[in-house]
Amino acid sequence: MCGRFTLTAPVAALETLFEAEAGDVTDMPRHNICPTQDIAVVVAHAGARHIVPMRWGFIPRWYKTPSDGPLLINARSETIAGKPAFRDACRTRRCLIPASGFYEWTATAGKGKEPWYIHPAAPDDGVIAFAGVWQSWTAPEGKRLVTAAIVTTAANESLAPVHHRMPVIVAPEDWALWLGEAGKGAATLMRPAPEDLLTRHRVSTRVNGMKAEDPELIAPLPATA
DNA sequence: CCAGACGTTGTT
DNA sequence: GTCTGG
DNA sequence: CCAGACGTTGTT
DNA sequence: GTCTGG
What start and end residues bound the annotated signal peptide (predicted)? Predict the structure, then answer.
């Protein structure tokens, strides 16, 4: 699953990578992105790609308030096409959510929950793209909120020791298909990532706190005796 | 027909 | 809003 | 995802 | 314990 992630690339780099024009997206490294916060999202609209801010936590159209139901930070790929909450979004409002990596927690008896940082194994600062769906929600008073959820799938073999779910990661050659720019077949992209794409290491439990934000959050834990 | 759900995660 | 259950 | 709240009364 | 908020 994916309940916390990072994005440390500058907006200008995202514009180049995704061939998209950035809107009102805050340009700052983020090492601890939490649900309900604004995230950068890539959408295709009128023949061009745009990077826009959205609230992380999908609000179905029928909610009377943003908390009229559970916080939908994820959408299961196995059922997304049929669920009333996500069906329309799955068909017509897919998006990509750029990330540098994400966190998972393991619960080991006697050790409490231990956070891991999971990121591309390639030695550069590779940005990955989560599959997402988005929804514009209008409050009764007329206020508009644009929201998004990250699509999840079964964990691949290499991630399974840490968690049994993982975000769907869309390879660059498939971005156009997921964004709806290249015909049908987006559903086939909702599968676990290749086994060699990601690597991981333990990080400090400081990341548990939502207010923590600094580069040391993703630093490997010092070796312990 | 109307009333009520509509969702994810993990854990038991 | 749409779908399911009674 | 984790952290933090979770409640009432009256008085200021 | 469960629910809400970030």
Answer: none
